[in-house]
Design goal:
GO terms for molecular function: cardiolipin synthase activity. The protein is α/β, with parallel strands linked by helices. The chain has helices spanning 2-5, 8-28, 33-45, 50-57, 64-81, 95-107, 124-136, 153-167, 189-197, 263-279, 318-329, 345-356, 372-380, 382-388, 421-426, 439-451, 459-463, 467-479, and strands at residues 116-121, 141-146, 171-177, 201-204, 223-226, 230-234, 251-253, 256-261, 304-310, 333-337, 360-366, 391-395, 398-400, 404-407, 411-415, 429-435, 454-457. The longest helix is centred in the first third of the chain and has 21 residues, at 8-28. The relative contact order is 0.13.
């Protein structure tokens, strides 16, 4: 220590120089301003090790090998789905719809489909029996991709069907996120399950107890895909709290959507590209295509459905852009359900501007938190929104986990994307964008029914908090992108 103390001054100033370089790199990057500020402050306060933490955890830098694998996912999506792209032919739905659809085709490589029906489930309890019934009807393959899998009524019921189908020759595959399942499944559960049942299973981005950028990127998607013609997604994971079979944080309010028809193929391709990425294999996509329905039997209607996915490593915030477009194009109302309200400056400004322009903007968040700090951070974002005229409600019976938008009785989205930094910038996510679909009215009706069971948050309540709590919330808002 005595020897080292003679060199401490040189060591300290070298760290200061490295911290200044890190700040310059952060400022020059095309990322959210809030994310930049959240990193700049701790780096300048702790110059000795702040730059090192940013180097390890502060970005989405990839090795050349990982970049090639990611680019392979995009190339495959384009190669397989490009023939389905038809945004320019949707002009009958209005230019706003065409512009949004065109964006998803170009940057998420996900087409829009007109020959698809959807079914909305206001609760995981409602989706559970329908999922089981559809799984029992599988004839060719079943693909599951979930952030959380936990033993219990839900997963055990699904697994029993998977074993039967696998024994009957159905191609069954499972992907789960290793960090999402860290508290629910034993280590190397994928190997254990595959050895015991023969069902191919793999975990995404295996957890390693080291500081690493890659640990930030999780697979938060939720897919249940049957034979390429039926798929489910939404907020529900394969665990009992999502169907209220295991009480946690009061009543669990979640949602899901069933996609039946051509659009399910797009979700199948999303799963297969992830499977190729994890297992480092190549698939023959043509053999997974669902056969064309008999003439006159295909779904119809004057609406279209566009499933989409968001890759956090392609520098394109697809999930946030979809939400921003829905808010900015709203003329009458925007109804939002989200478990977390930790919004970027862009989304905050869009919500405030819409409310100031007379759009009826309403948001439902939980009243019973699942994470105390994150709940406090959600509430820290209330005041500026309320001051602009946004109405905020907290679901008093328990926890809201749904991620839904309903706009003007015309547009909507259901998926896995929370209104927080992790979902919009760090996680692999998915959603289903709807235009003129009758399901939008069901999402709206569910919102209003949920609002009736919620308490309004007032501006006076936010202003009436003690100064220590206000100070804490100010700090939390600054570091929100790092939470």
């Amino acid at each position: 220590m005595v020897f080292f103390s003679a060199f401490f001054v040189y060591f300290y100033w070298n760290c200061v120089i490295l911290s200044i370089l890190a700040v310059l790199i952060i400022v020059s990057r095309q990322t959210d301003p809030g994310y930049k500020i959240a990193w700049i402050i701790p780096i300048l306060i702790f110059p000795v090790f702040g730059w090192l933490v940013y180097l390890l955890c502060g970005g989405n830098r990839l090795s050349a090998r990982m970049r090639r694998k990611m680019q392979g996912m995009d190339r495959k999506m384009i190669e397989v789905l490009e023939q389905d792209c038809k945004a320019e032919s949707l002009s009958g739905f209005g230019m706003d719809a065409v512009i949004q659809s065109r964006y998803l085709e170009r940057y998420a490589h996900c087409p829009a489909y007109t020959n698809t029906d959807t079914r909305y489930f206001p609760l995981g309890d409602d989706a559970f029996p329908v999922m089981l019934e559809e799984l029992r009807h599988a004839k060719r393959y079943i693909f599951l991709e979930y952030f959380i899998i936990a033993p219990g009524i839900f997963w055990d019921s699904v697994l029993e069907i998977l074993k039967e189908k696998h024994a009957a020759g159905v191609d069954v595959r499972i992907i789960y996120d290793d960090v999402g399942c860290l508290p629910t499944l034993p280590m190397r559960y994928d190997r254990k399950l595959e050895a015991e049942t023969g069902i191919p299973c793999c975990s995404f981005n295996r957890f390693k107890p080291v500081l690493s950028i890659r640990m930030n990127n999780r697979d938060h998607r939720k897919f249940c895909i049957i034979d390429g013609h039926t798929a489910f997604t939404g907020g529900i994971n394969l665990a009992d709290e999502y169907i209220n079979a295991k009480p946690r944080y009061g009543h669990w309010k979640d949602s899901a959507i069933q996609v039946k028809g051509a659009a399910a193929w797009s979700m199948t391709v999303m799963f297969l590209t992830m499977w190729e990425y994890i297992r480092e294999v190549e698939e023959d996509y043509d053999r997974f295509r669902a056969p064309a329905p008999p003439a006159g039997a295909e779904p119809g209607g004057n609406h279209f459905v566009q499933p989409y996915t968001d890759n956090p490593l392609d520098n394109e915030a697809v999930g946030e852009t979809v939400y921003l477009n829905l808010i900015n194009k709203a003329q009458n109302y925007v109804y939002i359900m989200t478990p977390y309200l930790i919004v970027s400056d862009s989304v905050n400004t869009a919500l405030c501007n819409a409310a100031k322009a007379g759009v009826d903007v309403r948001i439902i968040t939980p009243h019973v938190p699942d994470k105390r700090l994150v709940f406090e951070l959600t509430r820290a974002h209330y005041q500026p929104l309320l001051e602009a005229g946004v109405q905020i409600f907290e679901y008093t019976p328990g926890f809201v986990h749904a991620k839904n938008f309903a706009v003007d009785d015309r547009y909507g989205t259901v998926g896995s994307i929370n209104l927080d930094y992790r979902s919009m910038f760090l996680h692999f996510e998915d959603g289903v964008w709807l235009c003129n679909d009758p399901t939008v009215l069901e999402i709206k009706a569910d919102f209003l029914a949920t609002q009736a069971r919620s308490q309004a948050v007032t501006l006076e309540q936010c202003r009436g908090h003690s100064w220590p709590r206000k100070f804490l919330r100010s700090i939390l808002r600054v570091v929100a992108p790092l939470v």
